[in-house]
Write a structure and sequence with these properties.
Length: 434
């Protein structure tokens, strides 16, 4: 509906500007044909050439008397024919557009449907041009009609290009539909609005220069200065905007993924044009400017192929050697059991990641058995359930085998302990035990 009525206010505004601004100036000669002076324009007040606006000097009665009824009928007929052709062409274009849309060619359908309004306006201009060709007009009025037709054609062309921006939106949506990020979906309307604003500015400058004869050099200089001032004032916002574009193109993370950035560990909740919102594991919402994200490293935990777990199983120092070996075998047997094995034997890039268990260290307070395995797929809560089952099985097996876990304690051994005889020697021969 908006496309049908947009030409009415635009055309009315164009005519008003043309006539009220007096762009078509009438050059009135000092002396001329009496008939021309009587029928065309009012006589000048002085002998010098006077420039006045068309509306102040135009004689409507003379225009009517100088042209036959047939000329006016041709004008009305041309206008009527252009309107009929416009309606007929609109019906044809609308039918073609519907058929292409039904066939799945939405982009091609826009090419025809977007031409309906501009085509009707252009045909109206053609009808006016054909009809006015048979009307005798004075030079100022002829210039006026020429610039009016130029205005109509210019509006029709820019209107059609303005509508074709929707074709760009259709094409871009095909690409954004293949992505999971909603940010590029929000970017498509922004690109459409930006293109239409740009086209509107170009249209205004073109019409001002070609139709109204205005010097747009000063306008462009003013726009350049204003743009510089705006860019300086909004440089932080522009940085964040370009940061959002970088996130769209590079895709370092998506909504729902867990990241670590600048000390914050959380889930991406929203990716906007200015900032990205992260819900930390403690429940707090952190807003991070996009310009910071693109300039600093981001750890994307959500894209890890596996969850790696490393454990140090510590046992007491008084554990016999055979028990140490048994402890290692118990852990390996648990990890290789049918109910534990499948998720911790993932194949990444063609290589199977196997669990590793080694008695690797003699600590200050315990003997250490190092355990590492990789859990896939990297679902955190499934991983936690698997880890709990492993821990319970480990406690059960160690308890049955009589293997004690060590913990950081200090043990004081006394002389005379029947389990651990300590030989004490006197450093000084003259000292006697009390």
């Amino acid at each position: 509906m908006g496309k049908r009525f947009i030409s009415v206010p635009v055309l009315a505004a164009g005519f008003w500007l043309l006539m009220s601004a007096g762009i078509c100036q009438a050059q009135i000669p000092a002396a001329g044909d009496a008939k021309q002076a009587a029928n065309k324009v009012a006589p000048p007040d002085t002998d010098s050439a006077t420039t006045k606006s068309l509306l102040d000097n135009f004689d409507f009665q003379g225009l009517l008397t100088d042209n036959s009824a047939d000329s006016w009928m041709i004008l009305l007929g041309a206008i009527f024919a252009s309107l009929v052709l416009g309606m007929l062409g609109s019906a044809i274009l609308r039918n073609i557009s519907k058929r292409l849309e039904a066939s799945g060619y939405s982009a091609r359908a826009h090419v025809f449907s977007d031409l309906i309004g501009p085509g009707k306006l252009a045909l109206l201009g053609v009808g006016l041009a054909v009809g006015l060709a048979n009307i005798e007009l004075v030079a100022p009025l002829r210039t006026f009609t020429f610039k009016t037709l130029l205005l109509i054609y210019s509006i029709a062309v820019f209107w059609y290009v303005f509508n074709l921006v929707s074709l760009v939106e259709v094409v871009l949506k095909r690409f954004t539909a293949k992505t999971e990020s909603p940010l590029d979906d929000e970017l498509v309307p922004l690109i459409r609005k930006t293109l239409r604003v740009f086209l509107t500015v170009i249209a205004v400058l073109f019409i001002a220069d070609s139709v109204f004869g205005q010097d747009i050099g000063a306008w462009l200089a003013g726009l350049g200065i204003a743009g510089l001032a705006v860019s300086l004032a909004a440089q932080d916002s522009l940085k964040n905007l370009f940061g959002s574009l970088t996130i769209i193109l590079d895709r370092p993370f998506l909504i729902g993924e867990r990241i670590c950035f600048a000390g914050y560990d959380g889930i991406i909740e929203e990716i906007g044009f200015r900032s990205t919102k992260v819900r930390t594991l403690t429940g707090h919402l952190v807003t991070i400017p996009n310009s910071n994200i693109v300039n600093d490293p981001v750890e994307n935990i959500g894209r890890r192929p596996t969850i790696r777990r490393t454990i140090n199983v510590t046992i007491t120092y008084d554990t016999p050697r055979e028990k140490i070996e048994e402890a290692v075998e118990i852990i390996r047997r648990i990890l290789d059991s049918p109910d534990m094995r499948e998720p911790i034997h993932p194949v990444i890039n063609g290589d199977e990641l196997l669990p590793r268990v080694y008695f690797n260290d003699l600590g200050s307070t315990s003997l250490n058995i190092f355990v590492i395995y990789w859990y896939a797929p990297p679902n955190y809560w499934d991983y936690m359930e698997h880890a709990q089952q492993f821990n319970l099985r480990l406690f059960e097996e160690f308890e049955q085998a009589g293997i004690e876990f060590a913990f950081p304690t200090q043990t004081l051994y006394l002389a005379g302990d029947p389990k651990r005889d300590l030989m004490m020697k006197m450093l000084n021969d003259g000292l006697e035990p009390s």
